């Protein structure tokens, strides 16, 4: 009969409202009960200092009233913001800038540099990524011949001004290097997990690091 | 018992001001000065009370809708998110108020005011006791019907003024829909007028010995469906239709103008609930220890809750479905209801045209039977329509691999 489904739907929503034990489906930022230690870590304080300076919050946390937001589980191949860039690997070839479909990578080089891996190279003066316009396609990462540029794994980069979204070279150098394993099979082979907070140094992220003689022969002589 | 029956209305304030101005020594001109002063004071009160009520109503709506949808509503600002409306308002006021270059500026600026003014005007004729707030207007319901019809103009102004294709599309749909649904709404109201015999809201409340929802459920159904469409809420929110039109008529609005549009949109359910409670649920009538105002608030809350329930459950209808529902469904049902009620009144009423309580009881029994049977017949008639699907034709490419072998 026409209209029975309409009334059934009303019943379902009313059940949602009326039954007290319906589970809320929360996937992002579920509230987690926080201990005083967690809260102290949030305020970047020692736990003891926190207990003495914020007694009310401590008591609330012990009772179980204080909550903090937990991050959702996230894959190691997540293409996040804050690109991981290794200046020791970068030769300044500007492949990333050429491949970027939006043209948001700005790179300025001069000819006086020395690269730790390949010898003579360009010296990089400017390396800016405007992540405010980035669509995280990852073509720059695919294009990089020396595995110097990786996608990051963070996603909480909101700022008040657009200009703060331009990541410059200083910030890239200073940033914690948690490269995503997206398009980097050498990282996922090693079960590298950036979300757990593991850091990767410049000499362990490459895909053709120090080729052995057998490797060379396999590649060139045995063809 | 708390006595609130002597409601403070227009003339209380008027007499108060008249006394002051006469004692000052203004003489005869004190009459119009006190009219003016009372008008300003009362409009100030009405506007502010309605804005505060709407602010908390938005909170209530979002929280309840969250529970209906098995998610949380706003819960960050204040206890249970109670300060969320104020945060919203502050944000909207501080935002830049943009005007498109090509916009028709006076029209676009006037549109939010034209939308919110009728909604505020309606609340002045709602009876909160034996009297309504601004005195009992003897054509109260006609006033409401007239004033609500301004809505369609206001929405068209908003869409046309902002010079945006989506906005114009949304407001064109809106104008068509609002004009169509005014007719079933007027038909639903007419059936009330047949029973009450008066256009004054206070008289309509007085004549409801049995609530009119019990006397003619069909009329209530027609009225509520049309009123939901009139305030363009889900399932009739063709005007906004986020998935189709961006945001419809309010695409180009921002800042305080959008805040006022938002206000009008969320004030509409409150006002509609007040009108529906007055017309069909017996207004301030109830039993004694609880004052009439509390009864009225309770009935309003019930209607608001039901509207919210429908909003949480039903999806948006298509444009042609909406128009078909107005003209093929509600229009016919409304006329049928009027016909039914008129015949019953003619048969039952005495020589003076008065209806006693027992007459209303007989009418309600007859009407419930007829309503349920009519709806069942209609639903069964339409329910047997099945979609016929053509037989699936195998793809010519499917045999290619076999032939190649």
Order of helices and strands of chain B: HHHHHHHHHHHHHHHH
Mean pLDDT score of chain A: 82
Using DSSP, what is the number of strands of chain A?
Answer: 7
| Major interchain interface with per-chain residue totals | A-B, 16 and 17 residues
Strand order of the largest sheet of chain A: 4-5-7
Distinct helical segment count of chain A: 9
The helical percent of chain A reads 25-40%
Total beta strand runs of chain B: 0
Instruction: Compute the number of helices of chain B.
Output: 16
Written as H for each helix and E for each strand, in order along the chain, the element string of chain A is HEHHHEEHEEHEEHHH
Major sheet of chain B:
none
**CATH class descriptor of the largest domain in chain A:** Alpha Beta
Q: What proportion of the residues of chain B form beta strands (DSSP E)?
A: under 5%
Structural class of chain A: alpha+beta
Task: Summarize the structure in short.
By secondary structure, chain A is an alpha+beta fold. Chain A has helices at about 5-20, 35-40, 45-55, 55-65, 95-100, 140-145, 170-175, 185-190, 215-220, and strands spanning about 30-35, 65-70, 80-85, 105-115, 120-130, 150, 165.
